[in-house]
Every structure is written in structure tokens, then in C-alpha cells.
Design a protein that fits this description.
Eight copies of one chain form a homooctamer.
Chain A lengths: L6 E4 L5 H11 L6 E4 L3 H10 L4 E3 L4 E4 L11 E5 L5 H13 L4 E5 L6 H5 L2 H4 L4 E6 L5 H6 L6 E5 L11 H8 L6 E3 L5 H11 L3
Parallel strand pairs in A: 1-2, 5-6, 5-7, 7-8, 8-9
Antiparallel strand pairs in A: 2-4, 3-4
The complex binds adenosine monophosphate (4 copies) and magnesium ion (8 copies).
One adenosine monophosphate sits at the interface of chains E and H.
Chain lengths: ~200, ~200, ~200, ~200, ~200, ~200, ~200, ~200
């Protein structure tokens, strides 16, 4: 564990072999580890070395050991503006849980239908930290930050096309949120968002 | 008049002389003309040639003749997300009026305080076209378009700093609005927004 | 229906399962729905749930129910600068029709051969709203807006290569149209353009 | 107060008059308010209306009432990579204090001389939230986040020239921080960074 | 003379002294020289050294000797889309003349009013090379290239605002011209455009 | 033929069917036509309709009729800075020939080995127009333009990686050529470069 | 050999045939040559012509003759911030060796765990030139340059996602390194970095 | 001194007071210091504290003590492509000298007139390191690196306009130099270039 938090292995640029070798070190160890952005063939190799590891295909995450620790600290809420933002939102959700917080997911609360997010206000106000994943216009974090006192962690997603520029539009929107209290992480960085949420909601 | 609409003279790149010469042609004519993005010294020259022309310093607009025509067609509403968006919003407002529509202005209804825009919903629903000027995150048009059936004309403003990139962030947000019905014009283009509103709300 | 207009389901970032589940809700319902940017495998799943749905391969659109409503409001014209702009133009055309307007398509009227667009002027002047899809230089909307009094909805397409930058060049051209009356939507956003046209030409 | 936090007035795009009018409302009120990015002539007008207001020239901040509240919650640390980052760092520092946290400033701990930041490690580990202001390469947040368990709020500054692109280089560095736990705000947004720190370190 | 063409001195980044020293070398010489992008104080210094030199304030050009050579080769036509493009168009016009071609200027023939450029078609077809200066959407070269057989030299100008991005929008439009036969030069580079025209129309 | 030059059909965004239908019109016609950026399956369809058409795989060009016209006008020279620039250079070469000029190709004369281009100087000086295709730094046109009096048509290629940004680096280099006489076309636009060369070298 | 250094053949844009033909010239020659960025099918062809050539799959490099020369000059150190930077780091390492220097590789010394790079300081100080390959935030060169007196050659890698923008973020970080002594090369240009290191450490 | 090299104080973002306070520490000290990018009013303050300090207005540099150390190591050559690149070239020249190397300056050797740089080849080959400052197309380093065996340090300058984008065009050119052996530093960073040259040419 690094500074009290589990280690994460960024699998995107790694070969199957490199990932498997890292997994081998964990066998029979109590140490928590998250493998992020895993490809199918890496998962196969990982599950050979660590057959009990938990794999979430949507979040592209392998976790070891498979069961998250007993939650401590405050509750975290993860919002996905649309269905297409789910992979990123789920990566945040699971990361937060494996880092030891209680966390829930709310989907399809984009600003095009305000009643959906307004209906969640009481629940939003119970959270110690809120992760908001949104693509296209990325407008949801501005709206949420205006409704709660807790910090909002905004994750731009690459959902969209054309002038969405692979998430750049949403990223800029979030950096310019007209409500204070918005912390931005990299495009599609559900892992980073979940990590920050776990730190902010730490006991 | 071009295709039934008054001519506009874009004064930004013109010398005082060039602008004055254009004004001279209008003397004693019934023809409507708008001088947009006028500089102080151009105004002085214009008012020498056309002493009765109307000048709005905030909108940087000189109009001739000074009184807008009797309004026809549907009502137009112009929204400014914040006080700093007023110059652009006002340019849109006056343009719409000089093109013959009834138009009103609503200020300070940004998405950081949703109750402000929600309080305007009945009024929003009476308009045939809505202009929304917003800078920074540019999130207001997405929200407004989700609340009304009329077209929303979104004008990104250069209000903001850093990653607002002189209005680029707001422009991209608006182009990616997650609600349909958002028509985008150039950054700070209050004139173009007002023109479009007048065309859409034409009788 | 949202604010009087049919709902659209943006299928790009969704799994086959997610799309099929949404379709299931529509079975035996009178509610109009458009599935945009559908992939082949999504279409198969959709047609299993809704065998009578209309599918347009070029526009990548599935519509339910298959027959557009009886048209009301003013006529809409959709222009495609070149043959390669057809998929986007057709998405706009069909969206407009399913939203209840009469709409026609004119192809291959790019500015490199001015006589082609000049030959259409009388027809252009009958429309209440004109959609123009153009890639590469994106110059057609400027020219069309100078010829008519109705609003022009400009859709930049990603047609081209090199410094076309996937439609960015055409997008910027359209935002800077030297004729007023040009409303811009996202690159390749035929759906959004058609929606706006239907709103503007509403009775 | 908005959601428990003082209101801030963004003075950059406002006229002297607009700012003075807002100040007038505060006279004889207990309500806390921060005027950010004030220009010299705005300060003069503000101090006429609120003679006891606190003005910090380096942070370009006017605060009312002048004395910050008694601090609650955890301690906050603000780091400035170099002397040139001081205006932004100080804006963060004062914002945090006026929002009710205890906050300290550490200057000139850039990564070009690692011993300087290494000497601060024990102190860094006492903070509940750390703000890091850095321009040019913006590398300091990555290093700090690797040394502590608390969240790091990274503020890119526009310090530098050429390929620093007015803070863009530092912004990208921070969004790509190779250590987790880095929350990014807009370029030169000391106010937003301080606000987030106060929220995170809230009791 | 370089390869048969006069030398040009790019004065933008030079001190008054450096420019004056270059002029001194020309005294009493038959050698043709153009000083481009001259500032007022450089002109004063130049005219002290070369009192008979020709100075054109709009084109920011000083020429020595003051009278262009007797024209040879084919005629060149320079078009300015709008009045604001005149400085760049005039720099091209004078450069072409000082390089030995016959050249004429046509102003205000932008595509928003097609009849203006259509009225010039017979004249356009007499030219051996056509320079087109246009800002904002930069659409004019596409249209002109579709009307003539001679090469079109397109000069984007920095006229416009917002998403014109200082001439970038016009530059991209021109690089993507949907008609072949468009040669592009740098933004505001009237000198380069005129030089190319003179080369193309050389005897 | 358009304005005296053969028509070109841009095949990139077209279906096999659309291309075949265009070819059918040409059967038994004397009209010259170039099919540019053809894909393998389009070629098969084209050769079924026009079995005698000429196909150049490297240039991705199909020409009909297969034999270029007897050359008129001045000679054209096409330079490729490196072997990887050959597809673009060849597209230019063949276009020039099918438009009726005599044209030759010189390969591998990049500026990293100056002696190679210096050895070609006498030959360079015989051309009426020179096309230069170069990727990466795109420096070759600046050097060539300094050596000859004829116009240089610079085609940036997408050869390179990283900060070559798909040809953007070379494009910018060419637009900023420190020698006058450089005409720039779109990235990888060998067709446009060859067309311009044929126009410039026309009799 | 060019100016005393082996020739390199950039294989990315070349056909298998072109590469094989170049190899044929080397048969039975003492001349050193490096084939960089080779694709699998090019390797097969190369090894047919030069069966003894050395091939490193990770570095995508084929070297001829297979054994590097006896090293002269000072030692070079190549650092890879993370495992994913290995392909680039290895390309630099091998290039340096084939150009005649002694060179070693140190992996996984990113700034997120400072102790790793601090443990290498004595070793770092023995090098005459240090190559640092890093992606994402690209912060490592700034830190290393602050620890040594030798020049640091920084190679940004395309490792990362989202706002890493294919290596652009790391590139900008390195160009803005707050410590002097950082020489930057193109994204993923391990070959160029190794070449520079060999030149700097030449005897 | 940092790692054996003098300290540099980056004065751009500092107040006159901050700079003066730093100077005060140097009084009566043997320590070498360079104040870079000094503004006029900073110079006045510096010379009050250190009356004997050397000030170079063109390079915007103040050095203390005023006389460079006795040179050691190999000779360094600084090239300026044009006169406008002189300020940057001179900052490099002086930095190199104050860091203890012998250094010379060669001006006006841009690639538009190849004979100028070719005439310098013998001199170029005597240098242990060559700094090349160039703006606009930034093509000179590619050419120089092809002529010598020593490393070339390329400094893009912000000389130019339009698509030079304040030095970005030259920066990209240099990063993509088609000759190996080019080390790039930030736009206008003469200080960094001179520092690298001094390190490379160290004894
Ligand atoms: N092709 C499209 N382009 C842009 N927006 C779309 C498109 N299709 C649907 N939408 C919008 O996306 C929203 C639905 O998103 P979702 O809930 O993710 O299906 C709807 O409100 C539509 O207005
Ligand atoms: N306005 C201009 N824009 C672009 N290039 C120019 C301009 N004026 C002169 N030049 C070129 O710059 C070179 C002169 O640069 P210099 O030696 O710095 O005066 C000449 O070779 C010209 O071709
Ligand atoms: N490879 C090409 N690059 C750029 N423009 C082209 C190319 N090939 C054809 N064109 C132009 O595109 C137009 C034909 O477009 P289309 O009608 O879509 O086939 C012609 O007028 C050509 O000038
Ligand atoms: N002109 C310059 N450009 C880039 N970096 C510089 C410059 N001058 C000084 N520096 C670096 O900036 C650091 C000093 O920054 P500071 O402590 O803010 O004065 C030193 O370590 C120098 O390496
Ligand atoms: Mg959203
Ligand atoms: Mg807003
Ligand atoms: Mg077009
Ligand atoms: Mg730093
Ligand atoms: Mg125009
Ligand atoms: Mg080259
Ligand atoms: Mg790193
Ligand atoms: Mg140069």
C-alpha cells in the first residue's frame, strides 16, 4: 500500500507478461491491488495467477483481494449523466469501495431533464464527496456543485462526437464550472476520481 | 435592406473615415442600418453625420433610424447567465428589436443557482425564440433547451479566464449540448444571435 | 415525448443490450422514438423487438413507429454540398420528417459550381428553414444565407482530410459565416440540425 | 451565504458601478463576501462603500467583513512552486481562511531543487488538504501527491512563456499527474482552489 | 535582386536603427527594395535616408525606388472580400506592381452578396493570376476558383473575432477549398501573395 | 471538363456504387476524368465499367482515358523529400500529366543532406512550376524557393509521428516559409498540387 | 556513415519492398545501419536479406551489423519513468550503443515515488548524458535535471490517455522544465534521443 | 551555484522589489548570478544594488559579476537565422559565456539564401555545440544538423506572424527535424539554449 492506499497497476501500455508478473508477486499476500484499464487477454492471464480476483468488465477493473474492505469514513455518491458514461462511473464506484468507502451509483441524471437531478437533491446532500461523470457538454458538475456543500469530483468522459473532441469539450466545461467546489480529473479517469473521493471522505 | 432585413456595418476593422462615409449615404434615407462593434471615435464621427442616431455604449451599437420598427411576429427572450455577459446579451436584444421583434432581457440566471432559471420557466415558455448568452462553462443553454419547446440560440461569451480560452470552452459546451434544439453562433456574436432570433420569430 | 417532440436514443456509446431494453418499453406504445447512430448489431436487436420499425442505413437511424406523422408547419429544405455529405443530410431529413414537418433533399450543390445552387434559388425561398450539410471548406451556408430570408442551419461534416481536421475547418467556417442567419450545430449532427429545423418551421 | 459558504463576486468582467452596487447591499450586514480579481479602480469604489473591508493587492481580493471567522476543521497548506506563483497561492490562502479554515503558505519549493520540498514532508503530512500552485512544467503536484495521503488541489498558473501557453502546459501536466490524489482547477484559479480546500478540510 | 525579384525587408521584428542601416546601403543604387510591415517610427527613419521612397500607410509598405517598373507579363487581379481586408489586399497589389506586373484591385465582393462577384466574372477571366484576401469564413477563394481557369492565391486575413481565431478559420477554409486551383499563403501575408502572383503572371 | 480542366471525382467518402454510377456516364465519352483517393474495392468496380482505365496503386488514382494528352505549356518538376512522400508526390505527378503538362519526379532530396538538392539546381531552374512534397519538418520548400525563380507548390505530407501531428507541423512550416514564392495546399493533397502546377505552367 | 554516425532508415512510411531494397545494398558491406520503427513484415524481409542482423522487437529496431562497436566516450544512462515507457527507452538505449557509447537502462523511477529516483543519484552523476523517457505528466526530466550537472535528453512518450493527448502533455511539460539543462526531442523519438546522447558523450 | 553552474533568476513574473531583494544577497559575494528577462524598471533597481553588474539590453540580461569567467571546454557557436532572432541568440550567447565557455555569434544565415550558411561550414565544424535561433519556418536547425557532427540546440523564436503562432510553427519544425542531433528548448528560451550548450561543451 502506498501512503495507506492500495497500489494500482495501469495496464494500458503493458504486455500480458508484464501484468502477469506483477500479479505473481501478490499471490498469498494480504496486500490490496487494483488492475485498471485491463484488456481481455490481460484478464485471462491475471485470473490464471489470481483465480479468486474480482473482475468487472464494464469498469475494466481487476481487484485483489476480491472483497472490498469494511467501509469507513463518509458515504460517496457517483453520478453518471447518461448510460454511456457508465464504464467510467463504475470504475470510480469500485475504486472508492476498494479504497474503503461506502459508495452508491445514480445513473441518467443529465441536465437535459432537470427533474431527474432535482429529485436526487436530498440524497446528494448526504454524501461527503460526489463523483460526477459526464460527456458531451459536461454540464452536470456545475449544476450539482450549485446544489450541495460537499466537494464535487468531475470526470469528463469521451462520450460524444465531433466537437466533443474525445472529452476535451467536457473537460473545459468542468474546469470553467461557474459554481465553486468542482475538482477535475483527466478524461475517462474513473480510477482517479474514485481515489480522490475516497481520500476526501476518509475518516 | 438585405432580403427584408436591415443592413449591418461591422465596424471593428474599419477606419473612422470608412464608417463615416457609409453613414453619409444614409442621411435622409428611410433605410434601417446597424453599426456593430463601434469604437468611441467611430461613434463621434457617426453622430456628427447622423445626430439623431441611437447609441448604446454597452452593446457597442449605433442604430439608424433611432427608433425600432413596430414589433411583429412572436416574442423573443434574451437571457444573460451573469452580469458580465450583459454587453453581448444587450447587443442581441437591440438587434432583435431593430429587426422588428418584441424582445425582453433576463439577467443573472446561471446554472450555479438553479432556482433562478426555474423561476423563469413560465416566462421562458411564452417565447418563440430564446437567446442565451453565457461564458465560462456555457452550461445554461443545455438547461434551458431542456425546459422549452422553442429553439434556443446559444451565444458563447469570452467571459472567464484560463481554460475558458476566450470563449472556446463555452462554444464547445454549446455545440455539445445534451438537449436538442440549441443553435450556436460565434463567440460574443450578439448581433448574429439577435438576427437569428428575429428570423425564427418572424410572423 | 419530451416537450412535445419525440425522444431520441443516442446509440453510439450504448451496448446492444441497453438499446434492446429501451426498445422493449416502446412495444405496443404510440410514443414516437428515434434511435440515432445505430450500429449494425444494434439494428438487428432493435428489429427483433420492434419488427415494423423503419431503418435507414445511410442515416444510421431507426424510427418507431415507422411512418412519420402527417406534416404540419412550414416546409423544410435539406441541402448536401456533395455526395459524401449524404449520410448527415439524410439523418437531418428523416429527423425533420419524424418530428412532423414536410422536408425535401437537394444534393450536390457545392460552391465550386455556383450555377447549381443558383438554379435552386426559387425553391430555397419557399422554405421556412434550410439545413445545409457541408464538409471540407464548409462554404455553402454562407452563400445560401445570403440568398434567402429564412434561417439556415449549418451542419459541418467530417468529410475531407488533412487540414479539414475531421470537420473542424467546416465548423469554424460556419461559425464565421459572413452572412447573418446561420445557426450552427455539432459536426456530423444531422439529428440536431433536423430537430432545430422542425422547431423553427413549427406551426 | 450559498450552501453554508460565503458568496464570491467575480469582478473581472464587471464595471466599477456594478461592483459598487453589489457592495452597497452588504453595508451593515453580517454576510461574508469575497470580491475576486478586483481592479484598482474597483477597489477604490469598494472601499468607499465598505471602508473597513480588507484588501490584499497581491491576491487581488477584497473581503468583507475584514476579519476571517474563527477557524474550524483541519489545517490547510498552500504551496507556491516559485515566487511568481505567489499571487495565485495567496488568493487560495485567503479564500481558505475566509471560508473558515486555518491555512499556511510555503513558497519556493519547486522540483528543480528537491531538497526544498523534501524538507517540508513532515509539515505536509499534517495537512487535511494541500493546495499546490505551479506554472511552467507544473510538476510539483505530482511530487507532493506521492508524499502525502491527503488530497492535493493543483492550480496551474500562467507563469512562464512560449510553450507554457499561458498555463496550458501546467494544466495538462496536472491532469496527467502520475500519482493519484490530484484535483485540478482552472488556470490561475486560486479562489476555486482555496474553496475546494476549505470544503475538503471542513469539520 | 534575389533570383530576378527585388529584395524585401521584413521590418516587424527590427529596430529603427537596423532598418535605417539597411536603407543606407540602397542610397544611390538602382536596386529595388520593399520594406514590409513598417511601423510609423521606421517610416520616419527610412524617409530621412531615402526621401523619395514611396510610402503606403494602409499597406504598411515603403518602396524604393518609388516608381514601379514598366509592367510585363499577364495582368493580375486582387480581390478584397470586405473593406476590412483592404490593408492586406493593398500590400499584395503594390507588391505585384513593384515586381513588374500590371495589377488592379476590386473591393467588397464577399460571398454574402453573390451578385457582386458574379458581376465581375468577365473581368476575373482576363487575369493570369487572382489574389483573394478574405477573413472570417474565408469562403471567397472557393467561389472564385470555381469561376475561372487561372490560379487563385488565397490570403486569409485576421479580420473577425471569436472563432475566427485571428485568421485560423479562414486559413483552414482556404486549405480545404472544394474547388481545385487554390494556392494558400500565411494569414495576412499580402506580400507573399503578391509575390506569388507576380511569379505566376511572369512573361 | 470544368473550365478547360478534367473533372476529378473525390472517392474517399463515396460508396462503391456511387463511384461506379459516375463511371458509367463516362463510357464511350471522350471526356477526361480522374478518380482520386480510390479504395481497392472502388478500383475493382471502376475497372469493370471502364476496363481500359489507368490505375496507379501508389497514387491511388484511376484515370480515364488511360493515356494523358499530348503535353503543352512549360515543364513541371515534382520533388519528394523522402521515399515515404512518394504516394503524394506521385498523385501530383500524374495529375499534372493528365492535365496536359510534361512532368518529372525527383525523389529523396531532403534537407538533411543538402548536396542532394544542390545537385539538382540546374534541373530545378528549367521548370515553370515545382511541386515539393515533404513531411516531418517540411523544410524542403523553403530551401527550394530560395534557389529558383519559379513558383513552388508545397504539399505537406502526413509522414512522421508525434509532434508531426499528421502533417500539421509540415503545413505550418510551409505557410511560414522564409523565402517568398511558396504556395501551400492541404496536407497530402497531391491532386491539388498537381492541378495548380498544371495551371501555372499552362501555355 | 553520415558525418561519422551510422545511417538510420525510418521504416514507418515505407513498403516492405522499399526496405528490402535498401538492405540489399548493405550486404557484405562494413557500413553500420539502423532500421527504426520496423513492422513485423518488414523484419521478415530484412532478415531474409541480412540473416545475421540484430532485431529487438520491443525497440522495433533492426541493426546491421548485429554487434555494436567497442564503446568510446563517456557513459550514458537511459531512464524509463514507468514500464510502459520501455519501448521508447530501449530504442534510445540501443541507438546509443550502436553509435558507440556504453549505455545502461534504469526502469520505473517515476516521480510518484521519489525514493526510487533519489536512490539512483550517485549513479546518475556518473553519466555524461542522461536520456529520460516519460509519458503522462512527463515530470521526471525536471527532477533529474535538478540533481545532475550533465545534460538531460527528455523524450516524451505517448503513454497515457485523455488529456495526455498522445504525448503532447509530456512534451509541453518537458519544454517548460523548471530546471535548465533539458534537451527535448519528438514524442516517442527514442532514436533521436539516443543519437543526441551519443553525440554529447562522444570522446 | 547550482550543481557547478551559476544560478539564474527568472525576472518575468517578479516585482521590482522581489528582484532587488534577491540582488541584495549577492552584494560582496563571489557567487555568479544571471537575471533573465529583466524589465527596464527591474534593471534600474538591480543597478542600484549592484552598480557594477553587466546589463545587455538586447538580451534582457543582467549578469553579476560583470566579467564572464575564463573560458574552459570546447567552443560554442550561436547562429541567428535572421536579424529579428538576435535578442534570443544574444541571450544564448551571453549565458554560454557566463557559464564559462568561449562562444561566437553568426547572424543572418537563414535557409532562404543557402550560400550564407554553406559559407560557414568550416567554422560550424569547429564547434563542440551549436545553438540555432530561428523563427517563422524554423528550418535552419535541420539544415545545420545535416552539416555537422556536433549536437545542435534549436531555439524556436516567436518571430513571424499569422500561422507562425508565436513560435509554435518553428517549435514543431524543430521537433520534427529530418536530421538527427537536434535538441529543442522552449520558444524564445535563449537562456536554456545557452545553458545546454555550456553543459555539452563542458571540459
Ligand atoms: N445523434 C445525436 N446527436 C446528438 N444528440 C443526440 C443524438 N441522438 C440523441 N441525442 C440526444 O441525446 C439524448 C439522449 O441521450 P441518452 O439518454 O444517452 O440516450 C437525447 O435527449 C437527445 O436529445
Ligand atoms: N511581410 C512579409 N511576410 C513574410 N515574409 C516576408 C515579409 N517581408 C519580407 N519577407 C521575407 O523575409 C525575408 C527578409 O527577412 P529579413 O532578412 O529578416 O528582412 C525576405 O527573404 C522576404 O522574402
Ligand atoms: N483528392 C482530392 N483532394 C481534394 N479535392 C479533390 C480531390 N479529388 C477531387 N477533389 C475536388 O472535389 C470535387 C469533387 O467532389 P465530388 O463532387 O464529391 O466528387 C472536385 O471539384 C475536385 O476539385
Ligand atoms: N529565461 C528563463 N527561461 C526559463 N527558465 C529560466 C529562465 N531564467 C531562469 N530560469 C529558471 O528558473 C529558475 C529560477 O526561477 P525563480 O526561482 O522563479 O527565479 C532557475 O532554476 C532557472 O533555471
Ligand atoms: Mg451532461
Ligand atoms: Mg453559465
Ligand atoms: Mg462546400
Ligand atoms: Mg514547478
Ligand atoms: Mg468572405
Ligand atoms: Mg524535409
Ligand atoms: Mg513521470
Ligand atoms: Mg529560418
Amino acid at each position: 500500500t502506498r501512503r495507506g492506499y492500495p497500489e494500482a497497476i495501469f495496464c494500458q501500455g503493458k504486455t500480458v507478461d508484464q501484468v502477469a508478473r506483477i500479479a505473481t508477486v501478490l499471490v498469498g499476500q494480504p496486500q490490496v491491488a487494483l488492475f485498471t484499464r485491463v484488456r481481455e487477454e490481460q484478464v485471462t492471464a491475471l485470473l490464471e495467477v489470481l483465480p479468486d480476483a474480482a473482475y468487472d468488465a464494464e469498469a475494466r477493473l481487476v481487484a485483489w483481494p476480491p472483497v472490498p474492505p469494511e467501509p469507513t469514513g463518509g458515504p460517496v455518491l457517483v453520478l453518471a449523466a447518461g448510460t454511456s458514461d457508465l464504464p467510467v462511473a463504475r470504475e470510480a464506484l469500485l475504486t472508492t469501495r476498494y479504497l474503503g468507502r461506502q459508495a452508491d451509483l445514480v445513473v441518467d441524471v443529465g441536465v437535459a431533464g432537470l427533474h431527474r437531478i432535482l429529485a436526487q437533491v436530498p440524497r446528494l446532500r448526504t454524501a461527503k464527496a460526489i463523483v460526477v461523470a459526464a460527456g458531451m457538454d459536461g454540464a452536470l458538475p456545475s449544476v450539482v456543485a450549485g446544489l450541495v456543500a460537499a466537494p464535487v469530483i468531475a470526470v469528463p468522459t469521451s462520450v460524444g462526437y465531433g466537437a466533443a473532441f474525445e472529452g476535451l469539450a467536457a473537460l473545459l466545461t468542468m474546469l470553467n464550472a461557474c459554481a465553486p467546489g468542482v475538482a477535475v480529473v483527466n478524461i475517462d479517469n474513473g480510477y482517479g476520481a474514485g481515489h480522490l473521493a475516497a481520500q476526501i471522505a476518509a475518516p
